Each structure stands twice: as C-alpha cells, then as structure tokens.
C-alpha cells in the first residue's frame, strides 16, 4: 500500500466537491474492489472519499410499485430487510448470495454498480428489473448505464445515491458460482411484469451484463422452464477463461434461466 488521504463525507454534495477539487481522488464505498486494486498498484488515488456514512445513502424505502435502496446500503442489509424480502424477494436472495459474510457486511450496492465487474451479481438485478440509477445530478435508465467491462455511464465525479427497482409480477436469480469467490461464472436474473413483458439479464458470461433477447421473446410467449431450455445461445461474444469456456457459459445460460423461471413460479 502507499500513502493517501482519507476523508469521510457527511453529505453527497460535499463528497462530490472533494472529488471535483482533486481529479486523482475517488469515492470509497465498501472498498471490496478498490482497496484490492490499490494493493496491487492498479489504482493509486490520492484521496479516498468515504461515502458510506452519508445518512441519505443508507435508506431503504418500499412501496407496492418500487423498492428504493440507498447506494451505501450493504449487501447484508438488503438481504436481511424484511420489506425487501416481502416485496421483492429475488433482490434479497441475490444479495444474500454475494461473496462471503465479510464481503456482504462491507460491500455496497452503489460500489458494486459503479465498479461494474463483469461477474458481479447486482448488475443483473438492475438490468433485469429495468431499474433506475439515481445520481447526485440525474436519473440513468438501466439499459443506458452499463457500457462495457468496468465501464458505466457515470462521469468521474458523479455519485450514485440510490437505485429504484420496479416491483415485477415475479422474478428470480440463479447463478453458477465460483466456489472460492462466489462471483458468477454465469448468472441469470429473470423478471416478468404485469403487462406480460419479460426481461432476462445475464452476468458473468461476457465483458459486461447484457440482456438475452431470444430468451425474453421465448418467455414472453410462454413463461415456462421448457421455453427457456429450448433457446440456443451463441458462444461467439462470451468469455473463455480459466474457469469456463464460452461454449460452457452458452450452455449454462438457458439452464440457469429455466431454473430461475421455476423459482419465480414458486
């Protein structure tokens, strides 16, 4: 590690002001990815601006149509929130499967989304539920937020303050995880809405989270596990690494989608 300054922000405006004053400064959420990168000298910010103590970023609001989660709410608190469990159980269950207990106690929703790790779980929920990412200055639709590997629509000094998740008719998340890190080798979030539309978001299989149009069309016509299994996924743009080949990930996608549909149907 190397020397750097640490500041604890008390409000979003102050945090953004500090970042604006120092282009080498970075926001600090749970630090699960940033601190590891700093230890390897892959990131060398001059100042870390801790946003996890900002009260407005630690709230959860739930009604019949929307679950709004503050950016500094940790994964463990999303998983344990009784209102989320009752209204949007798929989100609580996804949060409960992130990393290990220590990661869930420190990692935050906003930090996960801003980092946009290709194998992270939360991006699948955001894209699959057509959520809105709320920042200190604008609202960004899920379809416009994720741009590529570790790349989002956020400006360097832009701070996520909350995420608004629409409540679907039914939803579920399934992943085939790395047994050590619990990152998704492939993960699938499926959501069906009251108007009959279906969204299927895939994480862990490509450079960034993406929607599977073929699966969405098949499940819109018939929201059944059999319909999901019948869809063939091309491996062309999928990842091959030491954990799994592109062909294996292509095979997993409809299998996991079918399992998610089964879970969503209860």
Automatic annotation (TrEMBL):
Pfam families: FAD_binding_5. InterPro entries: CO_DH_flav_C (IPR005107), CO_DH_flav_C_dom_sf (IPR036683), Diverse_Substr_Oxidored (IPR051312), FAD-bd_PCMH (IPR016166), FAD-bd_PCMH-like_sf (IPR036318), FAD-bd_PCMH_sub1 (IPR016167), FAD-bd_PCMH_sub2 (IPR016169), Mopterin_DH_FAD-bd (IPR002346). Keywords: FAD, Flavoprotein, Oxidoreductase. SUPFAM superfamilies: CO dehydrogenase flavoprotein C-terminal domain-like, FAD-binding/transporter-associated domain-like. This is FAD-binding PCMH-type domain-containing protein. It comes from the Bacteria. It comes from Paraburkholderia caffeinitolerans. Residues 1-170 form the FAD-binding PCMH-type domain. PROSITE patterns: FAD_PCMH. One of its GO terms (molecular function) is oxidoreductase activity.
